[in-house]
Each structure stands twice: as C-alpha cells, then as structure tokens.
Amino acid sequence: MAKVVVALGGNAILSKDASAQAQMKAVKETAKELVNFVKNGDQLIITHGNGPQVGNLLLQQSADDTPENPAMPLDTCGAMTQGSIGYWFQNAMREELLNAGIDKDVMAIVTQTIVAEDDPAFQNPSKPIGPFYKESELADIKAIHPDWQLIEDAGRGYRRVVPSPKPLAINEYRAIKRVVDADIVPIVSGGGGIPVVKKGNQLIGTEAVIDKDFSASKIAQLVDADKLIILTSAGGVFYHYGQPNAVELKEVGVNEIQQHIDADEFAKGSMMPKVKAATDFVRHTGHPAVIGALEDVKRIIAGEEGTTIVSEDIATVAK
C-alpha cells in the first residue's frame, strides 16, 4: 500500500460561482477522481488550497465590519475556510467511497503550520487570494482598499497578495500520522494550514496564507509518504510554456529541473511553487513527485500522464 499525499488547488474548488452549492458540487466532482487512489490500494492523504475562498471571506468580513461585529483577522478566516472546505470534502469523499463499495472513514483535521516570525515573506507579499480583477477595476479597488497590494496573476487578471511564509513544521503531524495508520483518509492543512508563530508553549496566529504546495511537501515528508502528487488545472510541467517551442516533461531529474528553477523559467503565481515544492520533497525523501491535471488522475496513477520528478539516481539510471 503506497502512502500518497495529494494536493489540490483552491481554484479546483471555486471557479466563477462562489456559492456554497457550486463549491460543494465542484468538491463532489473532485472526490470522484480522488476515490481512484483508494481503489488503486493507495493510502490517501488530501490537502488543498483556499486562496479564492479566504480572499472572498475577507471581503465579506470587511463589508460588515462594525465595533459590535468586528471583522475576523486573516489567520482566523483561514481556519474558517479550512473548516468549511474540509467539511465539504469529508462528506463528498465518504459518499464516493461508499458508492465504490469501500467502507472507509474520512476525517478533516484543523491544521496549524508553524512559520518563522522573521520570515522575509512578511515584507514581500506574494500569495494571491480572492477574486480576479480587470485592469480597468484597479483604480476603484485601490480607492476602497488603499492598504491592499495587487499583482497580475499569470495572465488571468489582478489579485490581492498577502505574505506567504515558508512552513517550518506541521503542528498536528503526529495526530495526522496516527489517523493515517488507522487507515482513515485525512483532509489536512487546508489552505497550507493556519499560519502560527511559536512562542514558548503558545501558538500565535499571524496574518498570512501559506502556499499549499510547500505545506503539502512538508506533510508528505513528515508522514513518510511514498509519493507527492500536485494536481493542477494546467496539467504537467512545460519548458517554454505558451511558446512555439514548448516541451512537456514526462520524467525529469531534480538537478535538471533545478537549473530551470534557478533560471526563473516558471510562472511565479502558478507553476513555480509547485515545481519547488515537488523538488523539495524528492530531495528530502528520494521518492517521486508528480504534477498533473485533476481530470487525468486515472492516467497519472497508471504512470501515463503528468510530469514525474525523480531523484538523480533514478534519472541517471533512466538515461
């Protein structure tokens, strides 16, 4: 039985319709794909992003911010979306497992991710959250929210960005391991986990959103996963993406892909964190990481789709 950590983007849960009904429908469709890992005999650990959801929740909070009903801070909004998305996934996965004739428990775990108080990311916000805005809307948005920083996000529009510190540790990793050992499917570290700074015995929430791919890599290392799979809307990894000489990678060694990371060849708001997180997992464990499309899950399991990043020893043998 292979232990597999699967990371899903927040955009796989929310597209244009931000209603709970639409997001639950999207989660149900995603669960139909994820159940294939369990059918394959894999021990599945699910983690997911929350960028669109936490940004939308912050907008709702600020729209009704009064002394009697103050808006919740970013870390608490992260916890709220972690809970709501975990609830949707818990029910959807349980239903799809039963539909497949598999009686297996599913558990969402509120997860805190420890970060460094002096992480440089706090001075350089880079994590996109919330909805996309057109360039023509920017002046109005900045007038309403003068403290926001907005950037262009991979050709899809403009979004607010917040600090995204690197995960140092997963506070609940021992509990997650026990759940996995009990053959329960856990949904963990939603939105990268609630960012907290450790001070003595205290965990103090901080205003940030952790990249879910880096958090997934950390979890995969801590639970001794055999494979990390990062599912995207774009599919596998390309060199020269969007250009006439684009090349999709099928299998690549960590040293080769590191050269392209160092050359800053991947889009910062989309593929770059995925490639970095996958490479980090491979370097620390020697196990493979796969980046591919959600709709290709069956073919990813069969080794027919996605980009597989492998240790240099395996890459050398393959050559």
Automatic annotation (TrEMBL):
Pathway recorded for this protein: Metabolic intermediate metabolism; carbamoyl phosphate degradation; CO(2) and NH(3) from carbamoyl phosphate: step 1/1
Pfam family for this entry, one: AA_kinase
Aspartate/glutamate/uridylate kinase domain segment(s): 3-291
Entry-linked Gene3D superfamilies: Acetylglutamate kinase-like
Catalysed transformations (reactions): hydrogencarbonate + NH4(+) + ATP = carbamoyl phosphate + ADP + H2O + H(+)
Highest taxon of source: Bacteria
Record carries keyword GTP-binding: no
Alphabetical list of InterPro entries matching this protein: AceGlu_kinase-like_sf, Asp/Glu/Uridylate_kinase, Carb_kinase
Molecular-function annotations in GO: carbamate kinase activity
Keywords noted in UniProt: Arginine metabolism, Kinase, Transferase
Record-stated family: Belongs to the carbamate kinase family.
Protein's recorded name: Carbamate kinase
Gene label: arcC
